[in-house]
Specification:
mainly alpha; 2 domains; membrane; Sideroflexin-5; mitochondrion
Length: 142
């Protein structure tokens, strides 16, 4: 992480969304697989830091970079509507490590009918689970 961070804004993207490079950096942050290895204690510390910031009781030594990292951790792991942890393989940050083996399986040459059905079923099941885990849970669907 570079040493210069923009001023922290709770709930806002860290990178400028009006430029391609800013949007690219934002989505690289969203799918950053390092967030898959965040420990429970680090998650709790990040949540506490953001809660303290929201209530205006952040310690003076807390930097904008630390606040951005805490928000990144929260947004990667906690569902914004349910406030529940998203199961690791279905997080956006799990897209590359969990989706890539499936894509490789889909692209294997000389597949049998059974292997094609297996990989297609696995792919569609994984996609459905990712979509469900990251759904809009604040509005009931009819």
């Amino acid at each position: 992480m570079d040493g210069s961070c923009p001023r922290f804004q709770l709930g806002q993207p860290r990178f400028q969304q009006s430029t391609f490079y800013g949007r690219l950096r934002h989505f690289l942050d969203v799918i950053d697989p390092r967030t898959l290895f965040v420990t429970e204690s680090r998650l709790k510390a990040a949540l506490q830091l953001l809660e303290d910031y929201e209530h205006g009781i952040t310690a003076p030594e807390v930097t904008d970079c630390q606040l951005w990292e805490a928000q990144k951790i929260k947004q990667a792991i906690i569902h914004p509507d349910t406030n529940q942890k998203i199961f690791m393989p279905f997080r956006m940050s799990g897209f590359v490590p969990f989706g890539t083996p499936i894509v490789i399986g889909l692209l294997l040459p000389n597949q049998t009918l059974a292997s094609t059905i297996f990989w297609q079923t696995l792919n569609q099941s994984h996609n459905a689970c990712v979509n469900y885990a990251n759904r809009n849970a604040s509005k009931v669907t009819s």
